[in-house]
Design brief:
With 375 residues, the chain is α/β, with parallel strands linked by helices. The chain folds into two domains: 145 residues, 3-Layer(aba) Sandwich (Rossmann fold), CATH 3.40.50.2300; 161 residues, Rossmann fold, CATH 3.40.50.2300. Helix content is 44%, strand content 14%. Helix 2 runs parallel beside helix 11 and helix 5 packs parallel to helix 6. The chain is globular. The structure holds beta-D-galactopyranose. The site of beta-D-galactopyranose has 12 residues, from loops.
Length: 375
């Protein structure tokens, strides 16, 4: 009899272990589950803040979070994503560098690990379902509008056209095409009616791949943008004084401004230069009248929204993200990876000029010391 009970107890222990073991795997989906965070780079400083906020938002919701920075090298980020998969990540938030990330996204799909493309579409992949970003076409429209307003293009005289040089982001980043096309949707009509003259390569849209490649900036590297601007000043722009430069983000804007500062022609009168990301160094330049504008994308809100989405995916809930709208109609194209169209959630960008520097400050986007300096 004792033997019978012994067997019964062992069976019970084994069963409960199995249940608990099984429970651990299929227990509360989120408690203690690991969320991986793969951020592309840190040379563009906004990404540091994105990574830190994603981690803290995940931990706030009871997840473990593992944050990795890819140093703008996709092979490094791929190894990081594989490590996160090896750590049994439940979901991975990926801000990729380029579409060579696709094979490790496929590995995640094989392991049934969900992936969210964060602020950069993962191109040439059908192995994930969600992308969360800003309305990047509107980012460009805001950049174009800030130039049109500041240059007074509505009232400008075709006999004395304003001159502009064009820069774009990295061709490996789908956002760069939307930024540029948004801006040129505003600026092209002024070129066509003669009040705006493009100095240097002039792709009307990013569809003009040959000329777009000439104005694109590999890896969003400031050093590449600065060298191109210095070359423009010596060649195509040698005999004109540029009134403006379309710069796709703050990191490139500052590189362009540095190149102009080195040219005596622009002493005391820099061209009007756009930007994006509301990086502190650039908002200081805007305050000083040395950069025209930036576009504030509250990446703290983007990171929070991404983790809300992640939590809902992990729990099998239908996504519903405060402050983000599901892209529909023509905007849904922002989620076209080339292999499928993923569900794309968009947050709203805001133009920031000298007149509304309070917007990123009030959003607590900067440190106390930075706010002090911006007063
Ligand atoms: C883009 C992003 C921009 C800027 C740029 C440089 O994908 O949308 O906000 O950060 O990368 O990293």
């Amino acid at each position: 009899m004792r033997r019978f009970f012994a067997v019964l107890v062992c069976a019970g222990v084994a069963a409960s272990a199995l249940f608990l073991g099984g429970c651990k795997k299929s227990g509360p989906a989120s408690a203690g589950a690991l969320i991986g965070i793969a951020i592309p780079e840190t040379h563009v400083t906004r990404w540091v803040k994105d990574g830190e906020t994603l981690k803290s938002e995940a931990e706030k919701r009871g997840y473990r979070a593992e944050l990795q920075f890819g140093d703008a090298d996709q092979s490094i980020q791929n190894r990081q994503i594989q490590t996160l998969l090896g750590l049994d990540a439940r979901l991975i938030v990926v801000g990729n560098i380029n579409d060579e990330v696709a094979p490790v996204i496929a590995e995640a799909a094989q392991k049934n690990v969900a992936v969210i493309a964060y602020d950069r579409l993962i191109q040439n992949s059908a192995d994930y379902d969600y992308f969360i970003t800003f309305n990047n076409y509107k980012v460009g429209v805001l950049q174009g509008q800030s130039l049109a307003n500041a240059l007074g293009l509505e009232q400008a005289d075709p006999k004395a056209p304003k001159s502009i040089a064009l820069f774009a982001g990295a061709m490996t980043d789908g956002n760069a095409f939307f930024f540029f096309d948004g801006a040129m949707s505003v600026l092209n009509p002024y070129v066509e009616n003669g009040v705006l003259k493009v100095v240097g390569p002039y792709p009307k849209t990013s569809a003009d791949k040959e000329n777009f490649a000439k104005i694109a900036t590999e890896g969003w590297q400031g050093t590449i943008a600065k060298a191109r601007m210095a070359g423009l000043l010596k060649e195509d722009a040698k005999s004109v004084t540029l009134d403006a430069v379309l710069a796709p983000n703050d990191h490139i804007a500052r590189a362009i401004i540095d190149a102009c500062r080195a040219d005596a022609k622009y002493k005391g009168k820099l061209p009007l230069v756009t930007g994006q990301d509301a990086e502190f160094e650039s908002t200081m330049l805007i305050k000083a009248g040395e950069q025209l504008s930036t576009v504030f994308k509250n990446t703290s809100k983007l990171a929070e929204a991404a983790i809300i989405l992640a939590d809902q995916i992990v729990k099998g809930e239908t996504p519903s993200i405060p402050g983000a709208v599901l892209a529909e109609g023509s905007l849904a194209e922002m989620g076209n990876t080339g292999k499928k169209t993923v569900k794309t959630y968009l947050l709203d960008p805001v133009l920031v000029t000298r007149d509304n520097l309070n917007v990123p400050i009030d959003a607590e986007f900067y440190t106390a010391a930075e706010n002090e300096a911006l007063k």
